Amino acid sequence: MGKHFNIPIFIPHLGCPFNCIFCDQKKIASPQGVPEVKDIKDIIEEHLATIPEEAEVEVAFFGGNFTAIRRERQEAYLRQVFPYIEAGRITGIRISTRPDYIDEEILLFLKSWQVKVIELGVQSLHDEVLKASHRGYRAGDVFKACHLIKGHGFMLGIQLMVGLPADSHLRSLESAHLAASLKPDMVRIYPTLVISGTALEEMFVKGEYKPWSLEEAVKTATDMFLLFASQAIPVIRMGLQPSEELRSEGVVVAGPFHPAFGELVKGEVFLRQSELLLAATPDLQKEEEITFFVHPRDVSKMTGNQKKNIRYLKAKYGFRAVKVKAYSGLNEGALGIGQGEKLYKVWEREDFLKRLPVFVEKG
User: Fold this and answer.
1) Is 203 helix (H, G, I), strand (E, B) or coil?
2) What would you give as a GO molecular function for this chain, any one (predicted)?
3) Which of 3, 97, 137, 290: disulfide with 141, CB 3.0–4.6 Å?
4) pLDDT tens-digit profile of 241-268?
5) Which tens digit of pLDDT belongs to each residue from 230-244?
6) How far apart are CA 256 and CA 254, in angstroms?
């Protein structure tokens, strides 16, 4: 099987029982609005024309609460995809929905239409955060839904947010810890943004909500990423897709928006790895120049956004020069250290995960 591709079909707000205080899916996801049933085939064909035949392809219904849509419309959407599954052009379907719209009957229905992955918009597993964000369910509802999903053989995705009302660094870590205990197959992490026209904007204007800084959001997302990585749970996305609509003037009123939020987090991961590796090679800390070796795809991550990591290491350790070299002999996520062209020590990502402190306390 080749590379994995999703064919995204955005159904903004469709099936949502109410608007969460932070949400305006029409601005976050797609300016086109809700697709008609007859549009689904055209969307699939348009994407398939650009995807290699050997690829693994899923159709993904995102942006709304799929299982709260009228059953007739759910079935109509899924029926449009089914012929492509039977023909082997699409391997399955993934949907996103809310934890409180999952039950036995719904899962049996989804299974009959070849839905393989269910992503839950959990956002937090702290009841105070859920209440302050007007989510309409409690952490216990999330646990129940996740157990049902896993018990029926679906792959489980969990979507979490950092910086919601009443959230904190420790509460986000607690949510990540609890989410990891549910053994999801994948996780997404999003920063909370103040979007124009939302209830959160009203709270922000009144001084009732303070958005997190970019630094705070990146630090927390990094700790969460490492917690999930330590348990071999893939984090498949960090940060919102920087759509044209989202980047339009006035849409993001406040909050830690960055078009490459995920890259900032991965850069922070490499910075922490570099310091652990330096601590394990104290003699190199006395040198004027030092070289880090990474897989070619990790060069920008080790360098950091606008060379942030290079500047930090030079300032803290007094190096005259810090170089980052691409070395195809290393695995992605690994980091080597040396001088010039000479490589002295290599740690795989797993070696770092054993040594990286991740503290999870009650928030």
Assistant:
1) helix
2) 4 iron, 4 sulfur cluster binding
3) 137
4) 877 677 777 899 999 999 999 999 999 9
5) 999 999 999 988 776
6) 7
Give the tokens for residue 12: 């903004």
- Site of tokens 């994407």: 47
- Specify the 3-state DSSP secondary structure of 192: coil
The Cα 118–Cα 123 span in angstroms is 15
Rounded to an integer, what distance in angstroms lies between the CA atom of residue 234 and that of residue 363? 24
d(CA 233, CA 293) in angstroms, rounded, equals 25
Distance CA 236, CA 266 (A): 12
**pTM of the predicted model as reported, rounded to 2 decimal places:** 0.92
Q: Which domains does the chain have, with CATH numbers?
A: 4-259 (3.20.20.70), 277-347 (3.30.300)
The tokens for 222 are: 């990094």
CA–CA distance, 169 with 175 (Å, rounded to integer): 10
Residue 274, classified by CB atoms within 10 Å of its CB into exposed (0-12), middle (13-18) or buried (19+), is buried
Helices (H), 281-345: 299-303, 308-317
254 vs 216: CA distance, rounded Å: 14
Classify residue 149 by burial, with Cβ atoms within 10 Å: 0-12, 13-18, 19+.
Answer: buried
Category of 211 on φ-ψ map: left (φ > 0), alpha (ψ -120 to 50) or beta: beta
Q: Please indicate whether residue 355 or residue 226 has the higher confidence score (pLDDT).
A: 226
